Amino acid sequence: MELEKRLLDGDKRACARLISMVENNNKEAISLIKKLYKHTGNAHVIGITGPPGGGKSTLTDKLVKSLRDEGKKVGIIAVDPTSPFTGGSILGDRIRMNDLSLDPGVFIRSMGTRGHLGGLSKATQGAVKILDIYGCDYIFIETVGVGQSEVDIVRTADTVLMIMVPGLGDDIQAIKAGTMEIGDVFAVNKSDLFGASKTAREIKTMLEMNHNMDRIPPVMQVTALKNEGIKELLNEIKGHMEYLKENDRLNKRRESNARAEIINLIEEEILSLILRKNESVGVLDDISQKVALRNMDPYTAKDEILRAIDL
Amino acid sequence: MELEKRLLDGDKRACARLISMVENNNKEAISLIKKLYKHTGNAHVIGITGPPGGGKSTLTDKLVKSLRDEGKKVGIIAVDPTSPFTGGSILGDRIRMNDLSLDPGVFIRSMGTRGHLGGLSKATQGAVKILDIYGCDYIFIETVGVGQSEVDIVRTADTVLMIMVPGLGDDIQAIKAGTMEIGDVFAVNKSDLFGASKTAREIKTMLEMNHNMDRIPPVMQVTALKNEGIKELLNEIKGHMEYLKENDRLNKRRESNARAEIINLIEEEILSLILRKNESVGVLDDISQKVALRNMDPYTAKDEILRAIDL
After folding, report:
1. Which of A74, A146, A166, A288 could form a disulfide with B259 if both were Cys (CB 3.0 to 4.6 A apart)?
2. Which residues contact B215 (CB under 8 A, 6 or more apart)?
């Protein structure tokens, strides 16, 4: 197949085309990933997340520029909420209007929540594989928001970079509680603002309280807009990969990521089976109506549908 | 069964006990919901969400107090991220130390993300049903964060109240894009702050641009801390229920919510089947290892496991 050869040769257009195909759940693209799966696993995959207003995209851009100075090939997947009002992903269009998008050594793609359940995670992970085969040394997955599904997407990375900022308001404790455990490296961005050292200290204290960890994640202070602390942060990210490569930790990590990915693929498949069955005989519609009218409870409904899809 | 009678009689302790049982996925509690499901559907279920720092819990408390003045019976489920560091849900303990928790006409429960996939949504929806049988006139589901799974939980409500605040920073556009379409009523909280009217106007403009809606959601300005605008907001929330009751809209809404709930229950069941199979023969562990080592691709892994669980 021509696309296969072009992807392995590092053809950017072929890469873009295949990622679009994966987004559309195209069978040919999935077959190609299956065939070339042995060519994956070389890239260092970095997930970036944190609360809204944290400056994730600016920080990602600076990290990428630093890697470009080293001659590395980089991919960025920005996971954005999509608005049905505008029909597109607002954020992606807004943030990436910079010189990175003109750099032939950088591949950038925004992915929106397309509405189909479980689909975004599948598309993101497919895109990571294609970028890996394409030859990226580093792949960034950047998500907006602090919700569980964003966390699920980001934790499929080798290294999770958690971005915090000083003075996030009342909910900072809650944000920390929800995301603290998934960070491998922490960055307090906008460290030129008042309270940055205090925030960094608080995070350190919380991390040190956790005796289950065999490695306490570093907490770095950076100011992405002024390009301050970027090199040091990048060194910590690379350092985390070195750490993983000791004592088979990288394999363990990737095993647990594979586990999550497989479960996600299974859920998506079951869902598509149900929807297909509904299209032919309306089983889900009928049963949902009964539940809404209180003629059947949802637990019985679940059993009936599992019987009906006849997996 | 004694618990059944006590719940139907409006016994608060029985209610609390049953919600804990549902959280622990207790079969007896599920059976009881199945049996008493016909007693649900009477409460007006209100989902409250919005970005961190929006003052959701304060606003919820004021709305609840206003309903209590009318003599209504109210339930609150606060969905919190749980930290493995502290072992409990930080937010729930922090915010509810007020007079509401002493009011016999108010039932408050915090629910944390317990770690098992899909479980939080199931527990929340089970708790809503119990509060409904218990006799609540209004049930609030309050979530922190703007992520997809929080949105999924909140949209199971009859009415979704979206909270915004002035000056949320750069990511406000993204937040709006991701959550705009699920709000039935909008509140700009902290409206004593600079920029509140502008934020309200922006939201109105975005909502009016959406020609798909047969009803443009109201945008209210409130200051929860000063108890300003609460009555008016509550009227809009009640107005939304009146709107739903016209032309069979409430049934349609509940049908689509039932649909989402059933799908969630199915996903959870499939997952528990896989995990049970893994416990006996390690099928998921083995296959994840192969995928991590690039000896099998995740799509083939999915097919193998679906064959192995033999649904």
Report:
1. A288
2. B243
Q: How far is B262 from chain A (nearest CA, A)?
A: 6
**Does the interface predicted TM-score (ipTM) exceed 0.90?**
no
Among the partner-chain residues A30, A38, A292, the one whose CB lies closest to the CB of B258 is A292
On chain B, the residues whose CB falls within 8 A of the CB of A40 are 294
Q: pTM for the whole thing?
A: 0.77
Distance set, CA B160 to CA A254, B148, B154, B187, B276 (Å): 39, 14, 7, 11, 36
Q: Could you report the per-residue pLDDT of B203-232, keeping only the tens digit for each?
A: 888 888 776 678 999 999 999 999 999 999
What is the rounded (10 degree) CA torsion for B176, B179, B185, B190?
-50
The stretch A14-27 carries a mean pLDDT of 92
Check CB contact under 8 Å for A287 and B311.
no
Tell me what the mean pLDDT of segment B263-275 comes to: 87
Phi, psi for A109 (deg, rounded to 5): -145, 130
Ramachandran category for residue A282: left, alpha or beta (phi over 0 → left; psi -120 to 50 → alpha): left
Closest CB to B305 among A86, A251, A262: A262
Of B150, B212, B292, the CB nearest to A255: B292
Cα–Cα dist B112/A13, whole Å = 45
Q: Report the chain A residue with the minimal C-alpha distance to residue B81.
A: A178
Cα–Cα distance measured from residue B200 to residue B213, given in angstroms and rounded to the nearest whole number = 19
Calpha distance A141→A182 (Å, rounded): 14
Closest residue on chain A to B209 (Cα): A85
Instruction: Determine which of A56-70, A119-133, A244-258, A263-277 has the lowest per-residue pLDDT on average.
Output: A263-277
Q: Please, which pLDDT band fits residue B84 given cuts at 50, 70 and 90?
A: very low
* All structural domains of chain B: 2-250 (3.40.50.300), 264-309 (no CATH)
Number of A–B residue contacts, CB under 8 Å: 264
CA pair distance B14, A204, nearest whole angstrom: 42
Express each pLDDT in B291-306 by its tens digit: 999 999 999 999 999 8
The answer on pLDDT for A157 being more than 50 is: yes
